[in-house]
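> @MW can you paste both from yesterday?
MW: sure, first one:
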Amino acid sequence: MQLTTSIFLSFLMLLSMGCQSPKTDSSEINKKMISKAQSVLKSENIEVIPNEKNTYYLCFSKSDNTIKQKLSFVVLDPKENIIYPLKVLIDGKVSWLDEKHIKTSQKMGIAKKGESNVLLYSIDVTTGQSTKL
């Protein structure tokens, strides 16, 4: 009786594992994105950040210079096509705003008293259109 129960439970476990839908391995996608981004950005130190639905990947690298740090970035799709071409910011940052918009910020010159010297833009990665924030 115990052997029959064990076999039945083993069969159920195998059956349930076989019925699961195959998942896309995000680490495998990241490896592909990093490889493509390395060739475009000409850097070994790449960070990859997917948007909310994993439809686009923001890939960027930062230079080691901390005084005038250069940030280079591109946006890729899952097939490794370049959606938004290479852009370089000096003393800048980039992040996702939503599914298809990225936000860039860049320090420009010396801030005047009571004013900010940071320029903020929203970029639609599908059209390339940028809007000052």
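MW: second:
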Amino acid sequence: MNYLRILTGTGTQLPIYEPVITCLENPRAFPDLLEPVYRQAMKLDDETLDQFRFALLRLQLYADIHRNEDMEKAMHIRYVSQVLEKVIFGTLVMEPQVSDSS
């Protein structure tokens, strides 16, 4: 799977993508890399931070579109991208749908 292509989309590659790709490829590394990714993100200017947020959104969309191909991998991609978005930006642009069971 080409995570760099998903993160980059039609834009330019950012150095912060490298540790994110490590998190995506190795779920056990994610807890250790969360803070370094956050600290690297806090050094980005507003425009680059916006570009990074869209990269995380692209990951979430990719996971949703391909979830039936590999459910476990899709859940992992979505989890990593949502946790990073929530920690760095405080909110999720695409909040998960909560169904009302009443």
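> thanks! The two ends are 40 Å apart (CA to CA).
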